[in-house]
């Protein structure tokens, strides 16, 4: 093979030498000339090729031109090239290549397929080095689209970038403007030079806060723009909390600590606008309002989202504080045997009590907790706490485990680490919704839990609200079905609710599992549940969730 190529190469040279004038011209030309056989093996290169690429002729003959490949072209580029030249047409493109030393150069390339006598096919690549021209236009582009001080996009670049994003990702987006509140007084107090450095530092701060986007801009002296593509509306509040963190920050410049405050405004794509211009205009209206309202004010174009965001932000602050300062605490709600009304066990229900003694119930924070990075720390604490109480009090305690934790195999190691004489007094409550989100996986985890020695009991919480099939009940390795409060509430006056409750109880009994009625509030409900054959009852009729000392006096 190698010999053949050498021979071919020699032949190509001979043909060219026959025409001495042309040969000399080609050799000394500034134009890159490279000839390959039909398989792409290089047969001839002129001196320009050596000069531009940095390879010696000997290093190129017999090789494939992919030696110059920059890696910057998509695979389609090469497909199109081969399709074109193999069908006998000339291929033309401006394309980046790589020199021997790794540096990129750009060429304006033509590949010409030439058929010689005897049906021999050759490809002649003729190219001009256009690197300088490309660099220059890139530089012009940069000046046109980027802010020279911070390296972020400028207004022009931001417009192009965001418009593109809107077109490509029509889902959900967040448009943010951030204005440095006290820029002119900073300039006055410290001078323009420090002011410039502050802008650079602030730009870095924005880059770090919003690292998942390249839509970051300085759009005027002290106003920055950010555009985020969102996967869910939750991320609106995450972005909001990042802006909150930017309020009253102190940036170190040289040895000076300069405090900066901001105003910010947000609008949501596509709800508040579907083009760059409307989003910008509307966010700017909100920004002007925020600036008038004073330092640190952050506003949404849509005030409804704003109220929602503010509430959620408060919840996240509370969760952060509760985690850092260990403010989580369990209240316990007892449950009883329906027949005898003897104490059967207690459900641990979380609360947060802040330093001022204010108590927060789960409806205020549980959804956010279950979807935050505070969850695993919380659930580690929760399981530890409940284990300690079982050891101390020797009673059955139920704990609520969120769907997110349950879908993580860590739950298995958490549970298997518990001493077995404690574990069999523990009940794990998972909601029906958790189960139906991924029945097969949940079933597997439940089976593994049940294969431990002295396994914990499993209860399906809020049963009846998740529309799961009764068929599942047959195979579920669970011990207790907790009938949801909404059905119990209506059993006295609504025959249909009673029928549903009766059916759940009968079916559960036949499957040799137990039922627990949640939210029993009246004697009448209790009587009905008793005659329906419900095993366990829990509700305000007996006790609300109470702090542990109250629970202990209850048991006594
Ligand atoms: P859940 O597991 O269904 O807990 C029962 C909820 O119903 C408790 O609300 C309880 O106070 C309330 N309740 C009990 N009996 C009655 C009654 O007779 N009438 C009425 N109207 N309400 C009654 P709580 O403590 O606010 O908890 C709410 C939810 O928060 C719980 O619902 C549970 O899903 C979740 N949760 C509570 N603690 C934890 C926890 O430690 N971890 C996790 N992941 N979730 C928890
Ligand atoms: Ca529960
Ligand atoms: Ca429940």
Automatic annotation (TrEMBL):
CDD domains for the chain: EAL, GGDEF, PAS
Any Pfam family hit: GGDEF
Annotated ranges, domain PAC: 84-142
Domain GGDEF: 171-303
Xref: InterPro entries: Biofilm_reg_signaling, EAL_dom, EAL_sf, GGDEF_dom, Nucleotide_cyclase, PAC, PAS, PAS-assoc_C
Top-level taxon in the UniProt lineage: Bacteria
Domain (PAS): residue spans on this chain: 18-64
All residue ranges annotated as the EAL domain in the record: 312-556
Designated name of the protein: EAL domain-containing protein
Organism: Thermodesulfovibrio autotrophicus
Alphabetized SUPFAM superfamilies for the sequence: EAL domain-like, Nucleotide cyclase, PYP-like sensor domain (PAS domain)
């Amino acid at each position: 093979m190698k010999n053949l190529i050498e021979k071919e190469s020699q032949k190509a040279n001979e043909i060219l030498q026959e025409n001495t004038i042309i040969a000399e011209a080609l050799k000394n030309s500034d134009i890159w000339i490279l000839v390959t056989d039909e398989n792409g093996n290089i047969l001839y290169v002129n001196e320009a090729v050596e000069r531009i690429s940095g390879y010696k002729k000997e290093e190129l003959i017999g090789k494939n031109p992919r030696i110059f490949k920059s890696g910057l072209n998509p695979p389609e580029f090469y497909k199109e090239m081969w399709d074109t030249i193999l069908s006998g047409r000339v291929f033309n493109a401006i394309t980046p290549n790589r020199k021997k030393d790794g540096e990129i150069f750009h060429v304006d390339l033509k590949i010409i397929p030439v058929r010689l006598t005897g049906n021999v096919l050759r490809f002649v690549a003729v190219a001009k080095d256009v690197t300088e021209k490309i660099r220059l236009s890139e530089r012009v582009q940069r000046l046109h689209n980027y802010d020279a001080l911070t390296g972020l996009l400028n207004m022009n670049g931001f417009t192009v970038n965001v418009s593109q994003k809107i077109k490509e990702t029509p889902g959900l987006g967040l448009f943010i403007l951030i204005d440095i509140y006290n820029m002119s007084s900073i300039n006055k107090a410290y001078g323009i030079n420090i002011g410039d450095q502050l802008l650079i530092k602030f730009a870095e701060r924005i880059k770090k806060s919003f690292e998942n986007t390249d839509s970051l801009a300085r759009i005027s002296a002290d106003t920055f723009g950010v555009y985020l593509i969102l996967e869910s509306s939750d991320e609106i509040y995450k972005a909001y909390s990042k802006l909150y963190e930017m309020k009253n920050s102190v940036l170190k410049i040289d040895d000076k600590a300069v405090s900066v405050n901001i105003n910010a405004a947000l609008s949501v794509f596509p709800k508040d606008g579907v083009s760059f211009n409307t989003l910008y205009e509307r966010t700017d209206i909100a920004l002007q309002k925020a600036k008038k309202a004073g330092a640190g004010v952050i506003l949404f174009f849509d005030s409804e989202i704003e109220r929602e965001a503010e509430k959620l932000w408060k919840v996240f602050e509370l969760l952060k504080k509760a985690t850092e300062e260990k403010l989580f605490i369990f209240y316990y709600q007892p449950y009883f045997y329906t027949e005898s009304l003897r104490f059967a066990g207690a459900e641990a229900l979380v609360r947060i009590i802040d330093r001022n003694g204010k108590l927060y119930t789960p409806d205020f924070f549980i959804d956010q907790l279950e979807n935050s990075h505070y969850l695993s720390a919380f659930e580690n604490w929760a399981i530890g706490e409940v284990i300690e109480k079982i050891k101390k009090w020797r009673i059955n305690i139920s704990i609520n485990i969120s769907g997110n934790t349950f879908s993580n195999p860590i739950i298995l190691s958490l549970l298997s680490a518990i001493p077995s004489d404690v574990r069999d007094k523990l009940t794990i409550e998972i909601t029906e919704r958790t189960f139906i989100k991924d029945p097969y996986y949940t079933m597997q985890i439940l089976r593994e839990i049940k294969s431990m020695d002295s396994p914990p009991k499993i209860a399906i919480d809020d049963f009846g609200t998740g529309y799961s099939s009764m068929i599942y009940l047959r195979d579920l390795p669970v011990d207790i079905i907790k009938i949801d409060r909404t059905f119990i509430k209506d059993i006295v006056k609504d025959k249909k609710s009673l029928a549903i409750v009766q059916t759940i109880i009968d079916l559960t009994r036949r499957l040799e599992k137990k039922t627990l009625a949640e939210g029993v509030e009246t004697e009448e409900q209790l009587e009905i549940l008793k005659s329906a054959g419900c095993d366990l009852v829990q509700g305000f009729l007996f006790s609300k969730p109470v702090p542990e000392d109250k629970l202990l006096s209850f048991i006594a």
